[in-house]
Design brief:
By secondary structure, this protein is an alpha+beta fold. Helices cover 23% and strands 40% of the residues. It has five helices and twelve strands. A four-stranded antiparallel sheet has the order 2-1-4-5. A four-stranded antiparallel sheet has the order 8-7-10-11. The chain is globular and about 60 Å long.
Length: 186
């Protein structure tokens, strides 16, 4: 009895183990690229076992929403009160272990870069480029060029600025770059 109570207390303190009986819950799953996403939540939910989830990001499992582009599988999941987002590129796998979910969620909350907003332009002539920036970040890009080629030209003749608001480790920040310059995300 003392050993069981000790293990339960250890799980509560560390947050790295799931309570007995807690199951992996899939909140949302998407497959796609660059604004062309399919909701694949039902397919991913069907693959969950008592131990967690192992799933391959393949067009054979999910219909191809963005032909010719490298797709990303994004799975938002939770166990108990812990939530995390898992991502992988096409032809790779996501594996989520229920027993170690709490530690993964805690680490991710401290290190996951979230793009809150992104816009490119000048004055009142700006375009929302958040989806494009998010897609770049999802692929691992942290250095982003502020160019008309990348984001179009919403204000011809004016010097544009790329402004990105982000959240990292619970703290918000903003970075910006003038046209034809680059910015570095943390």
């Amino acid at each position: 009895m003392k050993k069981v109570a000790f293990l339960a207390a250890l799980a509560l303190v560390s947050g790295s183990m799931a309570w007995a009986g807690e199951k992996l819950e899939i909140i949302k799953a998407e497959y796609g690229a660059e604004g062309k996403w399919s909701d694949v939540t039902a397919i991913v939910k069907a693959k969950v076992t008592d131990d967690g989830l192992k799933i391959d990001a393949e067009n054979g499992l999910f219909q191809d929403p963005a032909p010719g582009l490298t797709k990303i599988l994004k799975v938002t999941a939770k166990v108990g009160d812990k939530q995390a987002v898992f991502k992988c590129e096409e032809h790779k796998s996501i594996e989520i272990k229920t027993e170690s979910f709490g530690a993964v969620a805690k680490t991710q909350a401290e290190t996951e870069l979230e793009i809150i907003s992104a816009e490119y332009g000048a004055g009142d002539k700006k375009v929302n480029v958040a989806e494009k920036v998010k897609a770049m970040v999802d692929k691992g890009t942290k250095k982003i060029a502020a160019t008309n080629e990348l984001f179009s030209d919403p204000a011809p003749g004016d010097t544009k600025t790329l402004t990105i608001k982000y959240k990292l480790g619970g703290k918000e920040g903003t970075v910006s770059a003038s046209e034809n310059e680059s910015l570095d995300l943390p």
